[in-house]
Amino acid sequence: MAEHAHREITQRELRNDSGAIMRGVERGESFVITRNGTPIGKLIPLRRRTFVPRAEVMAAFATAPMLDAERFRRDIDSTVDQDAFGREW
Questions:
Q1: Distance between CA 69 and CA 17 in Å, rounded?
Q2: Does 26 have pLDDT greater than 70?
Q3: In Å, what is the CA distance from 69 to each residue of 28, 57, 60, 64, 76?
Q4: What are phi and psi of 8, to 5 degrees?
Q5: pLDDT tens digits, residue range 3-13?
């Protein structure tokens, strides 16, 4: 998956413009904080929704094993019908 671009800001910018920067984070922007020109951290949104292109999703599942839906349902049902000690209800 491709890394999204982060806007680079200095420690001083973070201190002086924290309100605007935090609003940017709320909008989904990410920042790399630098001190003396050296990156020291990232500020990223926690609930950002990321679009994953269809081709990437299809590639990720291309090598996944096929699922037998009826067997899966039977396996789930047999597990759910037991208590924590494996005894049937």
A1: 54
A2: yes
A3: 38, 21, 20, 14, 10
A4: -90, 130
A5: 457 899 999 99
Token readout for 60 is: 């990720």
Sign of the four-CA dihedral 3, 11, 40, 27: negative
Average pLDDT over the chain reads 85
pLDDT for position 42: 95
pTM of the model: 0.49
Look at residue 71 and tell me if it is in a domain. no
Task: State how many domains the chain has.
Answer: 1
Structural domain boundaries, residue 49? 7-63
Tell me the residue length of the chain: 89
Residue whose pair of structure tokens reads 């940017």 in the numeric block: 24
Provide the CATH number for the domain around residue 22: 3.40.1620.10
